[in-house]
Amino acid sequence: MKVDQFAFLAVVPAIMTRRGVCAILSILFAHLGTDQIEARISGEPLCAQMALIGAAVILLAALTALFAGAGATGPVAFWATIAILAR
Description:
Elements: H1 5-28, H2 34-42, H3 46-67, H4 73-86
Helix pairs in contact: 1-2, 3-4
């Protein structure tokens, strides 16, 4: 079976985005592990996955814009905090 090159280029970023959102959601739901959260999201239909991941990305963009009101270091501090907590 031949794998379409362009389909592969679309799937890899989607999987990476889903894993990133799962890592961020694991901050909010500390009692669940990242693997459990990813399994729950992966178990949903594709439309529901897209809606959840899209809403999380839009929320992160809005929070970045909100923190940009604090100056140039606002978004940097926001994303540094997210990175530290996600680890």
